[in-house]
Amino acid sequence: MQKITLDGSSLTIEQVIAVAYGQPGSPEIVLGEAAKQAVNRCADAVQTLIARGEIAYGITTGFGAFKDRLISPADVEQLQHNIIVSHAVGVGDPFDIPTTRAIMLIRANTLASGYSGIRLGTLQALLDLLNHGVHPVIPEKGSLGASGDLAPLAHMSLVLLGLGEAEYQGEILSGAEALARAGMTPVTLAAKEGLALTNGTSIMCALGVLETYRAEMLMRTGDIAGCLSLEALHGTQMAFDERIQRLRPFPRQQECAAFLRALLAGSEFTRGYDPLNVQDAYTLRCIPQVHGAVRDAVAYCRWAIEIELNAVTDNPLIFIDGDDISVISGGNFHGEPLAIAMDYLGIAMSELGNISERRIARLIDESVNTHVLPAFLTRNGGLNSGFMLVQYTAAALATESKVLSHPASVDTIPTSANVEDHVSMGCTAALKARRINNNVERILGIELFAAAQGIDFRKDVIGADKRLGDGTQPVYDLIRQHIPFIEADTVLYPHMEMLRRLVSSGQIDRAAAGRLA
Questions:
Q1: What is the pLDDT at residue 426?
Q2: Which 3-state string (H, E, C) describes 346-388?
Q3: What does the alpha-carbon distance between residue 431 and residue 138 come to, in Å, rounded to a whole number?
Q4: Domain span including residue 163
């Protein structure tokens, strides 16, 4: 992508990913001509309202519980400045640069719809930050998810005013210094602009984009890890038979089973029909059902995020019909659709990690894998502990993910003197989903680590020349390019970190996809 044109209605998840992980200015972000006209028209309408002396929430009144306090025309610009500085009360670690870039892009796209009253110059200044690589320092915590992500978006907006802090070319600078180095000057906000910048769901939406996109990669990686474990355990592919899936026609269960069959095609490590061993444990046999349900949750999240990316989520909104200007207060800032989606994602991904951990436990336990593999995947057990403690780590991560799976969206704490009396906690739900995805990356890395070790023990029995599946063979080869067979006890955590990187970077996913394409 060389350039992305914002119009408020056509931004895609893939474009957000390109901007989030791209270099400043590549791709370049520009406003479409129709968007410029819509923004100018709405900004002019705001000035018309002020000239008429009309009462409009957030323009000539205070905010929240101060909605009934009238603001004089002389103070409307100070009101917008005040909302930024008073709302910048976030705490905690700052968002990383990809998340910050996604936040800025999504906020700009919302404002480009032309219903928010921001001036074209102020919106362009936000895009200039993004294109020049001036990244506001935005603390992770402080949003209730209604009225949108107020506190973190205020931190984003501070830098436009020459306040707060920003990362620029690897340094954390004051907002004023960052602007100066990038050749920019601070903005003085006009009526409605402070509210437009801070009121909306751009934080949770950005997190939702990044974590949903990552979950799509992790769910495929989970399928790959499950298949490699099945081969290490001399499992059967029979449970993935298309005829079985047709009789319970969940689409993504069927998709998952088809992917498993493709990954395992040609494998000489699986077993056919065996009257003395007709079926595997649930963690192997039920991969299409469990992983398919995960795919359903991730697909739902993509659906919700794709809508939210091009939604107008601030308040109030300005509608223009000829000379008639309507300022309507509503609730599009309420993050409930994303809060529930992010809780759903967290629950689903926790289950992906949970079933992976159970397969790890089976790989190391010779009593349950019927002595297909040696205890703890090591020679000379007793002297060597092998992969014993590796499974402990996976169990700890899976347990943490279960705790984090308690939904945030079922909770609410009234705020603003009980005017904002129900909030979504959507940002909390999204941050939990991120932590769960972090855990799942590591759990899947551990499963791949253990499964590759198991494959090597199987080769000792069936022959080193035997081939794995079409999709699992290149994954095993990739692992062995970076990690050796573990002959005896050694320091394992560097290997675990390497596997995490292979998972996180998508190399595992791409290795399988490259062979199956």
A1: 96
A2: HHHHHHHHHHHHHHHHHHHCCCCCCCCCCHHHCCCECCECCCH
A3: 14
A4: 3-200
57 given a catalytic annotation: yes
Q: What is the rounded distance in angstroms from the CA atom of residue 110 to the CA atom of residue 7?
A: 9
Q: How far apart are CA 80 and CA 64, in angstroms?
A: 14
Cβ atoms of 110 and 312 closer than 8 Å: yes
Catalytic member of 57, 213, 344, 476: 57
Q: Is the pTM of this model over 0.85?
A: yes
Q: What CATH number is associated with residue 96?
A: 1.10.275.10
Pairing of strands 28-31, 3-6: parallel
User: Phi and psi for 58 in degrees, rounded to 5?
Assistant: 75, -10
Could you tell me the two tokens for 440? 């799942």
336/453 same-domain check: yes
Coil, strand, or helix at residue 319?
strand
Whether 186 contacts 179, CB under 8 Å: yes
Per-residue DSSP letter, 488: S
Gap between the Cα atoms of 302 and 311, Å rounded: 14
- Residue holding tokens 């436990």? 361
Is residue 360 within 8 A of residue 394, CB to CB? The reply is yes
Do residues 226 and 80 both lie within one domain? Answer: no
Closest CA to 123 of 329, 304, 314: 314
Burial class for 294, CB neighbours closer than 10 Å (0-12, 13-18, 19+)? buried
Tell me: the pLDDT tens digits for 310-350?
999 999 999 999 989 999 999 999 999 999 999 999 999 99
Tokens of 122: 């102020």
Residue with tokens 């200007």: 325
Assess whether 347 and 393 both reside in one domain. yes
For every residue of 83-137, DSSP letters joined together read: HHHHH---EEEEPPHHHHHHHHHHHHHHHTTS-S---HHHHHHHHHHHHHTEEE-
Read off the pLDDT band of 64 (50, 70, 90). Answer: low
